[in-house]
Amino acid sequence: MSKIVFCNIAGMKYYRGITDEDKPSKGGKYVKETGMAYECYNFQPCNHFCYGYFQHVGRQLDLQRVESNSKTIKVLHNITVIWVASRKIVGLYDNADLFRYLQSFSEPLFDENHVDWEYWAKAREEDVYLIPFEERNFEVPSASRIGTGKGMGQAPIWYADTEWARTTFLPQVEEYLTLVREKYPNPYLTARRINQKIHSSDLSNSELWTKADELLESGQNLSALEIYNHLVFNSNDPYESCLARYKRGIVLEKLLMYDEAIGSYKRTLYEYDQLDEESKSKATGMDLNCYDKLARVYFVMQEYTLAYSLWKKLFYKESDIPRKTEALYNMMRVCKSAEAWDNLKELLEAYEDLQTDNFADEVERIKKILKAKLESFSKKQ
Q1: Contact 130, 90 (CB under 8 A)
Q2: 296, part of any domain
Q3: pLDDT in tens, 232-282
Q4: Buried residues in 7-34 as b, exposed as e (16+ CB within 10 A)
Q5: Which residues contact 257 (CB under 8 A, 6 or more apart)?
Q6: Which member of 165, 254, 325, 381 lies 3.0 to 4.6 Å from 160 by CB, making a disulfide possible if both were Cys?
Q7: Is residue 289 part of a domain?
Q8: 273 with 324, same domain?
């Protein structure tokens, strides 16, 4: 039997973001007062993983209750995490990573009002299962009703490590989960789907460009992607093919498919380098845009060295002061996240040399953070 933990979360239908049709409920005081639940994206794949959050007092889990020899281990692998709302099992992560300390990443594409997201568990999208709302009928018992150790208590996580759980309850759960795995895989985008092209069209390439851009602007990303995929391989103009590849990267990034977006942006840069001078004049700035977008994706993925090098390249190649300043500020964000304080000092000096007010408030906050860190280091010495 695999290691199992139960985590209590607010109730939702899909856990792919808060919408008018899917709002969190019964998630405690915070959810009731704000209407927000950070578990709202627990079943939204992001670069082929789902990231699971539950509200927990403190910033540390007792992993020794899952595996007794894990006193110093920061993450346990191959754990089955069962998500529970209103005492009913709503879904699960198989083969999940369960972290001792709360993890985080920044992603504004999830929700423009919330950039920073936290999680306790992580699983590949193909190992994630969500039970349809109307079919959630397997109840996890309440310890307050049938006795200590015999169900979930007030804590948001139950380790199910009692003798009763191991011998009486978990075998029932395992049997139920077998059915869940057969019937309720969480939907996600496959490679076949994102490479799909329009079958045929009576529209000219010019008309297809207009339609694809309109679809992209309106958020109909998959429909736009099908046209861009078509244009990549069915345009006789190398510039148009390169531009379609770039637009394809934009759509993949919006779909939170970062590995594929990186591949598309890199291919765009390769094709850009092959363009003749006339075509490059039409594609002015495409290479710099690719640097910027690649850096953003790497930053979200916490590949800080790659993100920094690309924004640095953009900083030196860009002549437009606002964009140059933005690249510099993004380099500061990387240094802050990577705690590269010496590099940050140099970037602040470079900002002063630009003599601009762009990002002035943001840079001022960075200065305060650096000052606090340097004072802290000084006190320790």
Answers
A1: yes
A2: no
A3: 999 889 999 999 999 999 999 999 999 999 999 999 999 999 999 999 999
A4: bbbbbbbbbbebeeebbbeebeeebeee
A5: 47, 48, 189, 194
A6: 165
A7: no
A8: no
